[in-house]
């Protein structure tokens, strides 16, 4: 499977909103509502932020929200905070053998 | 609290072998699919392998088929990855991850173990 396409970087000032896109195909993002998003700080393990396109795991603030349109999924971070500065990866079920595919990753910078 | 702790990484020569382990705690290990995911230095995440709750189904990314073997021991709450014929391009941090219940997506991750393949 090919990696899902994300912008290399996005940035915003504290309090602003940023949106990260994640573009796949009808065989992954567009075909299933199994899309998740992960936050990764430097030298740390990824942390689940959103699953099933728009659901929150326990403990994740609702400043993070997910959506999907066609073959593209989106992660929006509202009320940007300094601690949100990290790499973000989308992930989608790839339609076979219980495998999944990740996005290329987006670095979020808080100005 | 869910915990996943990997071990077994290190420096190995091209063509060599290494066995990674992942010790799980804080949940009923035998009830979950498990995965290995890797991340090359400065690069993105890549799914490597999945294993079903009872070990009866195993799946691999094409680049490791025939070289890597995923396994588990539910009595020991442990996940393993046997890596043979290692190549320089296998150099990465390897993460153990639990898959969400009834969903083919990871939720909890370990801290990772670094595998370096170099002469």
Structure description:
The complex is a heterodimer of chains A (111) and B (119). By secondary structure, chain A is mainly beta. Chain A is 0% helix and 43% strand. Chain A contains no helices and 9 strands. Chain A has strands spanning 9-12, 18-23, 35-40, 47-50, 64-69, 72-77, 86-93, 100-102, 106-110. In chain A, strands 1, 3, 4, 7, 8 and 9 form a 6-stranded mixed β-sheet that branches. In chain A, strands 2-6-5 form a 3-stranded antiparallel β-sheet, with no helix packed on it. In chain A, a hairpin with a 6-residue loop joins β3 (35-40) and β4. The radius of gyration of chain A is 13 Å and the shape is globular. The N and C termini of chain A lie far apart (35 Å). In chain A, 37% of the residues are buried. In chain B, the strands form 2 sheets. In chain B, strands 2, 4, 5, 6, 9, 10 and 11 form a 7-stranded mixed β-sheet that branches. Chain B has a 4-stranded antiparallel β-sheet with strand order 1-3-8-7, with no helix packed on it. Chain B starts with a strand and ends with a strand. The mean pLDDT of chain B is 96. By secondary structure, chain B is an all-beta fold. Chain B has no helices and 11 strands. Chain B has strands at residues 3-7, 10-12, 18-25, 34-39, 45-51, 58-60, 68-73, 78-83, 92-99, 106-109, 113-117. Classes of the chains: A mainly beta (111), B mainly beta (119). The A-B interface holds A 3, 34-36, 38, 44-48, 51-52, 57, 89, 91, 93, 97-105 and B 33, 44-47, 50, 52, 57, 59, 61, 95, 99-100, 103-112.
What keyword list fits this structure?
heterodimer, A: 111 residues, mainly beta, six-stranded mixed β-sheet, 9 strands, 43% strand, globular, B: 119 residues, seven-stranded mixed β-sheet, four-stranded antiparallel β-sheet, 0% helix
**Strand coverage percent of chain A:** 35-45%
Tell the overall outline of chain B: globular
* Helix-strand category of chain B: mainly beta
Number of helices of chain B: 0
Main beta sheet of chain A: strand number and arrangement? 6 strands, mixed
DSSP summary, beta strand count of chain B:
11
State which percent range the strand residues of chain B make up. over 45%
Q: What is the SS-derived class of chain A?
A: mainly beta
Chain pair sharing the greatest interface: A-B, 25 and 23 residues
Which consecutive residue ranges of chain B, at least 5 long each, have pLDDT under 50? none
The largest pleated sheet of chain B is described as:
7 strands, mixed
Mean pLDDT of chain A: 95
Gap from first CA to last CA of chain A: 35 Å
Order of helices and strands of chain B: EEEEEEEEEEE
Following the backbone from N to C, one meets helices and strands of chain A in this order, namely EEEEEEEEE
Alpha-carbon distance between the termini of chain B? 40 Å
Evaluate the radius of gyration of chain B.
13 Å
Q: What assembly state would you assign to the polypeptide chains in this entry?
A: heterodimer
